[in-house]
Amino acid sequence: MKTNKTLLSFAVACGLATVSSTSSAAGFQLAEYSATGLGRAYAGEAAMADNASAQWRNPAMLTYLEGTQVSVGAIYVNPNLDVDGSVDGSASGLPVSSASSDDFAHDAIIPNLYISHRYTEKLAVGLAFGTNYGMETDLGTGFSASHFGDEASITTVEANLNVGYQLTETVSVGGGIRYVMGEGSFGATTPKNNVFAPAGVTQGTTLKYMEGDDTAWGWQIGAAWQLNPNHRIGVSYKSAVDLTLAGDANIFDPNSRLVLDDTGSMDLTLPQTAEIASYHQLTEQLALHASFNWTDWSSFEQLYADLDNLPSQTVKVENWKDNYRFAVGATYQVDPKLTLRTGVAYDTSAVSDKNRTITIPETDRTWLSLGASYDFTKQFTLDGGFTYIIAKDAPITESRGYDSDDAAQAVGGQFVGETSGHVWLIGVQANYRF
User: Fold this and answer.
1) Which residue from 427, 376, 415 is spatially nearest to 16, judged by alpha carbons?
2) How far apart are CA 28 and CA 68, in angstroms?
3) CB–CB of 138/172 below 8 Å?
4) What gap in Å lies between CA 21 and CA 358, rounded to an integer?
5) Can you give the pLDDT at residue 178?
6) What CATH number labels 35-433?
7) Does the pLDDT value for residue 60 go beyond 50?
8) Measured distance CA(173)–CA(292) in Å, rounded
């Protein structure tokens, strides 16, 4: 369940490092939890209860689902991200060279499964399987700025056990336990023009490579307030999840010109998030919904390599900032069987222009979404969703003035360029009510 948009980063000996990101939400976050929500750009999710997938964004919405329901689906993510610029190594006696990589983020299919059961009139339970974070990028060993990083991945799989309870006729609450399994990798190699070339270090030599995995626990809570039969507000919160990715490392030693094997770990925190959403049934056919989301990306300040034999060190200063997402959507009931959806969203970048890196072409994004549901029977519904994401063109400069960046720049020169791109999302989901 790999996706495009990121992390693991490791660097050592030379103090180089980078994180990778090509996910469709900010940082290395993934928003794609259901095809139903995809069709409305995930607007109003914490206040929506279409099917069993509703528990993923707000466990309190379980109380709005009748009987036993099962939802299963997948979303295909097709990122088209490019980076184009040049590397100036003149300060180290190296020539100026172009540095570009096209479509360097990998496609992915993100599956999901949700089960809900109304246990009593007030109590409901649910089980959910999906992911909130993931990515995979590969700039290629021929990339002229590969000394800043040329490959990275992060894969997470999450299982939730949720419960919802109706406190009053208008107020419901919910909560859940989250079990997260994560693994990641990061690599950087020497470009063709590098300061070690006279000593026989050729293009593609590993500067650093690290892979590791871990499991951890988290939690989530939510609430819903039914203002009246046609208007509802929902709020939800997901805790941070702390992973220590432990595994193997390969580190280039600039003194011996050898790649050394080691083991170690790096702490990675999946940040806390919150959402406030609203749902408004304006007519029998038309409903409007909206969401405001916050992600605590400012907690991601640096990457620290804790190696077992080689010296431990800060490998990269990150200094990310909090991310905000605004979404509005609409649902139109064409007839008793056919439902249409649409939505737009604006997702702010989790990095400033200064802190953007080559392997994290993180920038503002605009979502344009369409979707539909068709009730084949009273029990069976099929959903589809489609989204086109426009990524804002943004500048990238490395080194950014931090010590770890300066060490990388000394190997192959400074990179100055720009990132551009777009992402296609296509999802399908089957829902069955017993």
Assistant:
1) 415
2) 33
3) no
4) 9
5) 97
6) 2.40.160.60
7) yes
8) 19
Average pLDDT over residues 377-402: 94
Mean pLDDT on 27-33: 81
Instruction: Using the predicted structure, report yes or no on whether residue 14 has a pLDDT greater than 50.
Output: no
Question: How many whole angstroms separate alpha carbon 42 and alpha carbon 79?
Answer: 19
**Backbone phi, then psi, for 139, in 5-degree steps?**
-80, -15
Distance linking the first and last C-alpha atoms of the chain: 29
pLDDT for position 24: 61
Picking from 200, 213, 171, 176, the residue whose alpha carbon sits closest to that of residue 54 is 176
CA angle, corner 254, sides to 248 and 258, nearest 5? 55
Render pLDDT for 307-351 as a digit per residue (tens, 0 to 9).
999 988 777 778 899 999 999 999 999 999 999 999 999 999 999
Gap between the Cα atoms of 388 and 355, Å rounded:
26
Question: For the whole model, what pTM was predicted?
Answer: 0.89
Locus of tokens 């702490």: 267
Q: pLDDT tier at 32 (50, 70, 90 boundaries)?
A: confident
Residue type, 344: V
What is the C-alpha to C-alpha distance for residues 20 and 17, in angstroms, rounded to an integer?
Answer: 10
Bridge partners of 326, per DSSP, are 292, 346
Q: How many CA atoms lie within 13 A of 93 on its CB side?
A: 4
The pLDDT of residue 15: 32
